[in-house]
Amino acid sequence: MIKFAVENPVKVLVGVCFLVIFGIQAFLNMPYRLIPSIEYPQISVSTYWRGASPYEVEKEILERQERVLKTIPGLIDCESTARESSAYITLMFDMDVPVNDAILLVANKLNEVSGYPDNMNQPTIRAANTDAVSVVDLMLLTDDTNKRSIDEYLSFFEETIKPYFDRIKGVADVSYWGGRARQIQIDIDPYRLSAYNITLSAIISGLSQENVNISAGTIDFGAKDYRFRTIGEAKTPQDIRNIVVISSDNARIKLGDIAQVDYGFSKRNTIVSYGNTNALSVGIVAQAGANVLELTKDVDKVVENLNNGILKNNGLKFIKIADQKNYILQAIALVKSNIVVGGLLAVIVLLVFLRSVRATLVIAVNIPICIIGTFLIMHLLGRTLNVISLAGIAFSVGMLIDNSIVVLENIDRHIVKGKKALDAAVTAAKEVWGAVLASTLTTIAVFLPIAFIREE
Predict the structure, then answer these.
(1) Which of 134, 143, 353, 409 is the most buried (most CB within 10 A)?
(2) C-beta separation of 362 from 404 below 8 A
(3) Could you write out the three-class secondary structure of the chain?
(4) What pLDDT, on the 0 to 100 scale, is given for residue 129?
(5) What's the confidence (pLDDT) of residue 81?
(6) In 10 A of CB 166, how many CB atoms?
(7) Is 160 within 8 Å of 238 (Cβ atoms)?
(8) Res 128: pLDDT
(9) Within a 10 A sphere around the Cβ of 356, how many other Cβ atoms?
């Protein structure tokens, strides 16, 4: 191989050009992260059952779900939390299990659960831990022209604004705090309730039975098929006021006769402040292995478009509080500068001791070519560009220079003896390649155990 490389410089040059071209392309497309991607695939399952106590949530929901989820292959940890009206399960899988496969396994297993309460919402599956740290933090505020409180915009954010962030590539979850959800509130008059001798359970039963759309079947008329539906689902407070809760031969009592029904907002359970004003806090959680820099850029574009569009029209604005982009860029830039400075210092030292510009240029050109080639291999293996990988490259530059000095000095020794440059290069490289390989393998053996460590 050494003789072939020396005797075919054009082929070697073409190979080097291809290596540099594809290496640069790989470098430009590699994901940037602060540290290597070591997150375990985590799937969160959220289930809501309005009005249920934590004990009921655990007994009727969590125990049923845990019974089937614990049999999923590759599951290494399962944590569940029962709260008032809600149940949360966080599943952690082995690193060898892809996130998409884990979501599919969880969804299939949840379909096996039976015996859920009738008024429970369907479980929601997300590819992130419910307590995951956000990579971008935003605050939603009202502008100076808007006199309404930001607390009234929670439903607007959930229905209109949040989907913009959910569609961004690499976003696993959008967490938010603050605000009060818009709802229709029923304020029952206890005196009228007593006068009509009506119980709360009768009102709840009446609402459940009347506030629905029911299929009424089909009728064939010639060549046409007509389908009939009974529309009973309430859309406005007036529709709810007209719901009949008690119907008998003597009277028909509507909900509006015994209660006040109007729009309102849910009870405040979280307070978020930015400066001296109330705010809605929004956190963008990234998927495992996502390119944080690209994700942050996409979030910035979405925020800018929202601030200049729909938010501006509604008297709202987003303010970015923090992100990881600048910290990652600064950390990577520091390591990059160390590589460049270290390489330059090594070249200067070589020039002083070898006292040969030609020999020094060989190593000076070899350093960036090898680094760029490393980027290609890293990209093919699905690695990310982070502080640890760049530090490894900086360390390998030292090994590269050591090996180059051994080979060059042996070549110089043969040239001094009177051999031609090409013959000296082949003979000298054949003599020391075994020692160079042994030295490199010894260094690799020292660090090889780190390659098998998957945890942080």
Answers:
(1) 134
(2) yes
(3) CHHHHHHCHHHHHHHHHHHHHHHHHHHHHCCECCCCCCCCCEEEEEEECCCCCHHHHHHHHHHHHHHHHCCCCCEEEEEEEEECCEEEEEEEECCCCCHHHHHHHHHHHHCCCCCCCCCCCCCEEECCCCCCCCCEEEEEEECCCCCCCHHHHHHHHHHHHHHHHHCCCCEEEEEEECCCCEEEEEEECHHHHHHCCCCHHHHHHHHHHHCCCEEEEEEEECCEEEEEEECCCCCCHHHHHCCEEEECCCCEEEHHHHEEEEEEECCCCCCCEECCEECEEEEEEECCCCCHHHHHHHHHHHHHHHHHCHHHHCCEEEEEEEECHHHHHHHHHHHHHHHHHHHHHHHHHHHHHHCCHHHHHHHHHHHHHHHHHHHHHHHHCCCCECHHHHHHHHHHHHHHHHHHHHHHHHHHHHHHCCCCHHHHHHHHHHHHHHHHHHHHHHHHHHHHHHHCCCCC
(4) 54
(5) 92
(6) 11
(7) no
(8) 63
(9) 13
pLDDT at 46 (0 to 100): 92
The residue among 273, 262, 10, 13 whose CA lies nearest residue 139 is: 273
Residues of the chain with pLDDT under 50: 130-131
Q: Give pLDDT, residue 130.
A: 47
Taking the CA atoms of residue 191, residue 192, residue 195 and residue 196 in that order, the dihedral angle to the nearest 10 degrees is: -150
Q: In the structure encoding, which two tokens stand for residue 408, read together?
A: 């060059």
Sign of CA dihedral 364, 369, 374, 379: positive
* Burial track 191-223 (b if 16+ CB lie within 10 A, e otherwise): eebeeeebeeeebeebbeebeeeeeeeeeeeee
